[in-house]
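Recap slide: GntR family transcriptional regulator, sequence and predicted structure.
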Amino acid sequence: MVVTQENVAVNGSSRRTSQQIADTLRERIRTGVLRVGERLPTQAELAEEFGVERGAVRQALRALQEDGLLSNVSKGSPPRVAEPAPAREEPQPTMVALAPRLTEAFSVPHVRIDAVCLTAQSLIPALGEPLRLIHDGRLRPERIDVRILLPSRDINLAFPVPVDSGSADDAVHQRWLAMRNAQGQVLQYNLQALRGTHDIDVHVTFRALPFTPPAKLYLLNGAEALYAYYMVTRRAEPTESGTLEMYDTLGSESLLFSFEKRAGQRDAAFVEQSQMWFDALWETITTDLTLS
């Protein structure tokens, strides 16, 4: 093994955790110190470099393999830096692309879905397919955790808003609020019903954002981020008292862009930063939300 200044610093520090080892190796891959196809040092050499037992090294290597950065992780030979995964197909409208991505996400024992959106309008039909497969016995998750950030009822939304402000402001806001609450309740009911029908540990939680999200974000099992811009358009909706002109969004028609950890360093960074952004919002400036 070639001893570098970095190695000396590592060996001179306190014992590293498997996460710290993985982060160091990930940075070497990101910066090109370790190139695609190149073999890593043996587990014994890495254990000596980081001053840890081989078990910690194996955990770090497995984590990098799960992220798609390493291949051939085994006890028999050193792993190699993996080729980036093939690029996904062209982005598709949310109403087309979201359902198959959610279905794949529900194939693991512990499903984790985080979402930032204006309402649950796109989530409800997209969840139909994985729910159907669960009822058919073709998907068998053990636990489902869903966290959803929606705009607070108490803020002035950027959209939807009436074209001409005034008396119509409240009508547009109440229309959006009714949709937000009704759709959220349907989503919550459909998922929590799996507790009784399939003995799945289900948790669905909502929190309120103090701003209008300009785009929607879906995070699937910490491994994939789906991102789509809200496209604002002018449209008219008939009401009992006439026609309501408003600036609204076409969320289900917005193109959904997929970023996967296994697809390379840029995608992996986007997924990680998106998850950090979501977690920060969840734990800081958002508030409890009761759908009513």
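Residues 175 and 289 are 18 Å apart (CA to CA).
The longest helix spans residues 168-198.
(End of recap.)
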